[in-house]
Amino acid sequence: MSDDYNESGNKWLRLAGGVSIVGIIMLTIIMIFTEIFTGDNLILAVRNMGILSVIVATIMYIIKTMMKVALSSFHLSRDAKEREQLSYFYLALSKEKLVSESERELVLSALFSRSDTGLLKGDSSPELPSVTKSFDFSKNNK
C-alpha cells in the first residue's frame, strides 16, 4: 500500500506541475496577444482584468487541490509503512509470548483504526470501542 500511495502522490505532483506550466503559458499568451491592459476604454479594461483574475484564481485553486491530494497520498504512504513496521514488531513480540491482552488490544486498535488523510479539517481517527482502558507503561511484562 505504501508504494501505491507514493506512486499516486507522485502522479498528482506531476499533474500539478503540468497544470502550472500550462497555466503560465496560457496567461503569457493572453497577456502578449490581447490588449487586456491597453486601450482607451476604462470599462473594457476593468472587465478584462476581472476575467483575467477569475482565470488566475481558477488555475490556482486547481493547483492547490492537486497539491493537497498529493500531500495526502504521501501521508497515507508513510502511515501504511508505519503500520507495516508495527505489524512486524507485534508479530515478533507475540511469537516470544511477550504481549499481554491489554497490550494486544492497544496494538490492534492502532493497526486497524482509520487513517487521517489530511483532506478534511478536524478529521480524527476514532479509537476502537473495546479499547477504553489506559495502558500502564510502568508494568514490566517479561
Name the descriptors.
3 helices, mainly alpha
Characterise the protein shown here.
- With 142 residues, the chain is mostly helical.
- It has a domain at 2-79.
- It is 68% helix and 0% strand.
- It contains 3 helices and no strands.
- The two termini are 34 Å apart.
- 5% of the residues are buried.
- The model is unreliable at 126-138 (pLDDT under 50).
SSE sequence, one letter per element: HHH
Question: Could you tell me the number of beta strands?
Answer: 0
Question: Beta-strand percentage?
Answer: under 5%
Number of helical segments with 4 or more residues: 3
Oligomer: single chain
Main sheet characteristics = none
Mean pLDDT: 78
Which geometry do the CA atoms define?
rod-shaped
Q: Which regions have little confidence, pLDDT < 50, spanning 5+ residues?
A: 126-138
Assign the structural class, choosing from mainly alpha, mainly beta, alpha/beta, alpha+beta, or little secondary structure.
mainly alpha
Q: Would you spell out the secondary-structure blueprint of this structure?
A:
Layout (H helix, E strand, L loop, with lengths): L1 H32 L8 H54 L5 H11 L31
Helix pairs in contact: 1-2, 2-3
Give a short summary of the structure:
The protein is an all-alpha fold and 142 residues long. It has helices at residues 2-33, 42-95, 101-111.
